[in-house]
Amino acid sequence: MDIQLEKKKGIRKKHIPYIAGGALFLLLTGWIIFGDHSSTLRIDARGISIGTAKSELFNDFIRLNGQVQPITVVQLSPQEGGIVQEKVVEEGVRVRKGDVIVRLSNSALDLQILDAEANLAEKQNFLRNTMVAMEQDKLNNRNEKLTLELETTRKRRAFQQQEKLYRENLIAKEEYLQAREDYDLAIQKHDLIGERIRQDSILRTVQVEQMEDNLSNMRRNVLLIRERKENLNVRSQIDGELGLLDVVLGQNISAGQKIGQVNDLSDYKVEAMIDEHYIDRVRNGLSATFERQGSDYGLTVRKVFPEVREGRFRTEFVFTGERPDNIRSGQTYYINLELGQPTEGILIPKGTFFQSTGGNWIFVLDAGGKRAYRRNIRIGRQNPQYYEVLEGLEAGERVIVSSYESYKDNQVLILGN
Length: 417
Description:
By secondary structure, the chain is of the alpha+beta class. The chain is built from 4 helices and 22 strands. The protein has helices at 16-34, 107-167, 173-230, 353-357; strands spanning 40-44, 50-52, 54-58, 61-76, 82-87, 94-95, 100-105, 233-235, 240-245, 252-253, 260-275, 287-292, 295-309, 312-319, 332-338, 343-349, 361-365, 371-376, 378-382, 386-391, 398-400, 412-416. The chain has a 6-stranded antiparallel beta barrel. Strands 1-22-18-17 form a 4-stranded mixed β-sheet, with no helix packed on it. Strand 13 and strand 14 (312-319) form a beta hairpin. The two termini are 77 Å apart.
């Protein structure tokens, strides 16, 4: 007969894989439910820069590179074009207002002067001949008038005689009438010559005035052309220093072409290019300072140019006090431009982390300094040394301010050696 075997109790060998799988499933489930899912990166603490948030006054200023320029620059441009005949003054020489710097020659202008002078001489001769002719006409008219006056007198006397004889019936009526008609004709001729003389006088006066006006205009024209001749001498408009002269002998210069400049060295200004980010905050009257040879000097914004080029706009500063010794055009000063009054705030040192985060978040170290956690913040103003933190940090907290390029999207950094 068959013997029935009793089943063994307990965990058998074949059950071990199932038990291990279940345990692993429970561990994974617990990690998913209760574990920390933040992505973690281990970094070398020796390769990072750490700064401490502190509560201090925030000085709202920016640092600029400013270049010294003369207070005024006057451009040299000839009013008349021509060929460079002589360079009277060289660059860097002090000049006074009215000094000739360059002499030009212009043969076409010389011909214009000769033509104008010839036309003037011709007009003068014409006016002279016309005046002589008018005077001759005037004399002829006077002579004719005298002749007619004599003829009128004789005709009147003859008429009176014929009238007396006719009344005494000594002559025919026809002779009397002819004498009367001759006398009337003489009177009319005398009146006519008087009217002609008056009209000729008015006409001569008008003609002479017109010709004299034309002659006067031609004289002024000749003077203007001679002044154009004088304009071939390019002169300095101010007292100063010839800073640039870009001409060579024999060069053809056109009217209005810039050939150089004269610098007014009675004072100086400083020009600086500023990032367009600050264009709404920079205005006339803002104060600035710079250090030179151990001394501080003051500036103020005189002019802000609205045009933005390559992400920057130009600003002019003038001195508010003493000038540095041996100041020269072209020198560079490092200027601190005050944009506002100092205010209390949370400050962190400037660093390259800003390029990656835009100031929206930062890694904050824990109390032990072994881990750093990503935290959202809000940064306001900045100066060359600090960022002003408006939200997200407290005074005394330490943060990583070096580059975040290699951290990507990690949430936690483990600092090691």
